[in-house]
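Hi,

Apologies if this is the wrong queue. I'm a grad student, and the batch job for Ribose-phosphate pyrophosphokinase N-terminal domain-containing protein from Trapa incisa produced an output file that my downstream script rejects. I'm not sure whether the problem is my script or the file. Here is the sequence I used:
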Amino acid sequence: MYIRKRVLRGWDVYLVQPTCPPANENLMELLIMIDAFGRASAKDITAVIPYFAYARADRKVSDIPMDDILDYLASKMICCNDLVVVSPDVGGLQEQVPLQKKLSHAPLAFVDERPHAHNVAVVVICVVFLTS
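Support response: The file is valid. Your script probably expects a header line. Output copied below for reference.
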């Protein structure tokens, strides 16, 4: 990573850091960068993690009621214009449509995973559909 000596106060910072192997080192590097930019008074720090090594696809996640999500977003004063509804795969797109409609037709995206080889990190592509 290379950064010219500049004042970052008030900047929006976007960090793109996968946590593919060696996951511990990459995750720690991301946390150190977040801390460094926070100490440099960056306005907003957004971490984009295209591959999250510690996620387990085989574990079922119970459904969270949409009202709870909407209440949480309202409590944090998050505007619907700042949201994207993401499905973990193409098959889950239909499940996300009711939430998308409740969020004023926020953009809808899905993740397309294509295994490179057995037990090797996958290529992850995020496709976003802008809706009106």
